Queue: 4 jobs
Job 1
Amino acid sequence: MAWRMAMILGLAAWLAACGTPGPRACPVDGARYVLREGKAYSARFRKVAGAPSAKRLVLDIRSDRTGRTYSFTINRGNGVGDATLAAVEGAMTVRAPIYTVTDDGKFVDYFGDAEGPAPRQLLLPTLGQALWYDIAALTNGATDQRERMPVAFFDRVACGTPAR
């Protein structure tokens, strides 16, 4: 009987040391976000087919107010300096850094690979300025209706199925 108790205690100690598997990481491809302030803007990451890195990851920002979607690629600078956004169409004169908060609460200015986990939060502190001052260039002259996006965190709301 003592040996059974020893085996049970040994097994319990081994299981405790191994721990339980953590939740599966949310893939960045297809992750969706909502702007905390006002919720009039949403964001979604999508990976360009065959892209091995975040350089080919697109961040779509959608305005509920105007119905427009603005698409940006991420310039990583090879890990030197801030990651920044570049417009897929049109141009921006405002430098737009992208900062991320990881699931464990770390604030980082370096964006990982397209296959990596999605950040818990995004902060795009100057994108609102670009959507205000560069709106004609970002829409290739289609409109001069400016966006009023406040500076606030985008909170991840879903991992979702990547859109193709």
Job 2
Amino acid sequence: MQIRFRDTVLPILALGFLTLSAMPQDDANAGLALRVQVLEAHVQEMRGSMEAQQKAAAALLTSLDAAEEAGFTAGINPKSREILLGAWRAQAKALGSPAKKPEEGKKGKKRSRR
């Protein structure tokens, strides 16, 4: 399962900002600092999880290649085993690819301030 920025980080940030807007202004600075710490912890946790998934996916691809070289696809109904290897490789590649970073701004288009 690939973790996507728009599906995980954005909702967390949105919830954080929504709760901050509901706070009285006196407590906003203290609440903001707390929220930032909580959100940073969540982001670090997600990054660790994504890195672990990428390492596991690389190990899976290596194991699949070794199984194929050792003769996994030989024997009864080899085509079904080739299909399984293909599906597992596709899944491992999807898990191993890093999540796409959001665009930092569209090039060529400038916003004017009013």
Job 3
Amino acid sequence: MQHRKTLFGNVATVLAVLGLSLGAHADDLSGVWKGPWYLGMSSGVAVLRLDGGQGTLHMTNNENFGAEPVLLRDVSFESDVLRFLAKGDDGSAMTAVLPVRGDGAIRGAVTYGGYKLRLELSIVKSESR
């Protein structure tokens, strides 16, 4: 068992040196990502939908951001970092520079209306429509 762990660790190290990752790649980010958001004592559920260079973000329990999904602008994924811009219903800008972790999670802070808002998102395996 220890041999397998060492072998896996060595393979992961080689891939990391070559600039590859065992987690999400640019092509793999398309889909629905869901998880909690936090801003001070407020929180809710965030749903991020990505499809290539486009997407939307919906946040429950955040009346300033809006009740409907907001379109994302300037969506990009490079060097394991997801970047996008959005504008809430209140006119406040959101700037996201979010690391995509090796386990496929997106966790980090975005700037929204001058405040740091934390997102902790995981890919949704399947979603009933």
Job 4
Amino acid sequence: MSRWLAPLLGAVGLLTLVVGIVWAEWDAASMGGVSVVGCGAVLLAAAGGIAAVHEGVVRRRRRPVPRR
């Protein structure tokens, strides 16, 4: 599941981050875009964490068995 979840979460986080930055630039009177930027940054961090955990699990599982 995490094979496709991390890239999907990363793409959604990146889009959310960009939308929040554009919103914050266009609407300087309100602070609505700032929370969207924060959500995008959290989603990107979560995607990075999921990808790192998945890589650690996969590498540990694929470690070759030493032969005698």
